[in-house]
Design goal:
heterodimer, A: 90 residues, alpha+beta, B: 417 residues, alpha/beta, eight-stranded mixed sheet, 11 helices
């Protein structure tokens, strides 16, 4: 499997470290429902069979975090953007 | 028909004309007391123990393909109980005890062979950790022996004892661990459950659920029609999130893919199971002679039932590091199974989370060894609407309450368990 890094180009998946689903965002720890929100954030996942936005870290390259859109049924990658870019545009 | 030495000899001499199939190819009835979704080892074992231990015989096992076509056919067939934590160890030890009597229980040759497992030790810290683990095992009635380097060498002289990075200093040995024939386990449970009246319905995919006005689960919608059930039990490890999604349930599960490999057949070489924790590689030898081995997960979410070359290379490097002679052996086959990786690396066997629903999931890559005890405890959970004492710690609410069973101690990172 190859991942097209926006900086480094197409590189072997060996160079990347995987974090997982990019959707969970850290809840507000001072919110009233923080206990439930942190349970969901830490433990629960949609785990879809199909396209999934996920975080990969280019450890042996530019050392940037990427959001990779990959189909979990086929491993086909359809999009790769820098996580910082994805966050700024969301 | 009950198999015996006499009818095996008679049929062996007369062209193996055993009369009839070993179990009925049942058509689904409109309603059952219990519907079990998933015709793998766990689902079939659950049906068998429901009928045998709890007298609930109006049971259907629904399988979308043929029985044993999922993870039951995609593992490395090892059973063992070398666990550390009190929430896990007694459960897996009960599983080993059930394995020991499984052939007599089912009247079926599952080829269970207690050939032992050795976890290799490479450092003082690892020896301390394994001594602690061995003591924990013995406290719950399992067997464990700490081996020194010479004892391991006598048992397995082919290992690389003087490896510069990971020299072998000893091992933790569980003699009662072993291997079994995965298909025969499925067939044995299917045949025994069928004999007690359980309907095994193949090519019947569950596509949805019927719900009562209070939100309870009242049955399943399948490709072969709607089936009502007082209780619906999910035993669909690998696809649990997919099935649970149609019930609006999110689970602490990610699906990952684990590869396994078998070499060409060679003469008897590996006496039991060997695990190389430093590089994550484990190996045993099948009765046919093939070396069966595996290593790490591929590491990213997947439903593909196939792995990638990077991990093939990684596993083979681990094998070469601990057992250089396998470099001369040809790889015959490779496959991958879907693992429900839970957030603490331990399974979930529980009532709910909806009324009428029962959950059996999160077996990570340890589902095969758990097959008999999983069926035993899940049947108890379904029949009595309460957790079995051996799975009392394996409940879904442990993630909320913080009582996780984190055997590996890596936290909520499912691809690392």
């Amino acid at each position: 499997m190859r991942i097209v890094c926006p900086y480094c180009g197409a590189r072997d998946a060996h160079e990347f470290a995987y974090l997982g689903d990019a959707a969970p965002t850290r809840p507000d720890p001072s919110a009233a429902d923080a206990v439930d929100a942190f349970h969901d954030y830490v433990h629960l996942r949609d785990n879809p069979a199909g396209p999934l936005d996920e975080l990969w870290y280019h450890a042996a390259g530019c050392r940037r975090w990427l959001v990779v859109t990959r189909d979990t049924r086929t491993h086909a990658i359809t999009a790769t953007v820098l996580a910082a870019t994805a966050e700024a545009s969301s | 028909m009950r198999y015996s030495l006499l009818n095996v000899v008679v049929n062996g001499l007369t062209g193996n004309r055993f009369t009839g199939p070993a179990w009925r190819d049942a058509a689904p009835k409109p309603a059952y007391d219990v519907v079990i979704v998933g015709g793998g080892g766990h689902g079939l074992a659950t049906a068998y123990y429901l009928a045998k231990e709890h007298g609930i015989r109006n049971v259907a096992v629904l399988e979308k393909s043929w029985i044993g076509s999922g993870n039951a056919g995609r593992n490395t067939t090892i059973f063992r109980s070398n666990y550390l934590l009190p929430g896990n160890q007694p459960f897996y030890e009960w599983s080993v005890k059930l394995w020991e009597g499984l052939e007599q229980e089912l009247n079926y040759n599952v080829m269970a062979s207690q050939r032992g497992i050795v976890n290799l030790i490479h450092s003082d810290a690892q020896r301390d950790a394994y001594a602690r683990r061995g003591n924990a095992m013995r406290l719950s009635g399992a067997d464990a022996h700490l081996l020194d380097r010479d004892a391991v060498r006598r048992m397995m002289p082919f290992l690389d004892f003087d490896n510069a990075r990971f020299p072998i200093k000893g091992g933790l040995w569980q003699p009662r661990a072993g291997t079994a024939r995965h298909d025969a386990v499925v067939w044995g449970y299917a045949r025994a459950a069928d004999a007690l009246g359980v309907d095994i319905v193949q090519n019947c995919e569950v596509v949805g659920f019927t719900r009562g006005p209070d939100g309870s689960v009242t049955g399943v919608e399948t490709t072969r029609g709607t089936i009502a059930a007082e209780k619906v039990a999910l035993a669909v490890a690998g696809s649990t999130s997919r099935v649970a999604k149609s019930l609006g349930i999110r689970l602490p599960i990610e699906s990952h893919v684990l590869q396994a490999f078998v070499s060409e057949a060679v003469k008897p070489l590996v006496p039991g199971v060997v695990t190389f924790g430093a590089g994550h590689f484990y190996i045993s030898q099948s009765d046919k002679g093939g070396l069966v081995f595996g290593g790490d997960l591929d590491g990213y979410n997947s439903y593909a039932q196939r792995g990638n070359l990077a991990v093939v290379e990684d596993v083979c490097e681990g094998g070469m590091a601990v057992m250089p002679l396998i470099g001369r052996v040809k790889l015959l086959r490779q496959w991958a199974g879907l693992c429900d990786m839970s957030m603490d690396g331990s399974p979930i066997v529980d009532v709910g989370p909806l009324a009428g629903l029962y959950l059996n999931t999160g077996w990570n890559y340890g589902g095969f060894k758990a097959t008999p005890a999983s069926g035993w405890c899940f049947a108890h959970t379904i029949a009595r609407d309460e957790a079995h004492p051996l799975t009392a710690a394996m409940r879904l609410d442990r993630f909320r309450s913080g009582r996780v069973i984190d055997e590996k101690g890596v936290g909520a990172q499912p691809n690392l368990h």
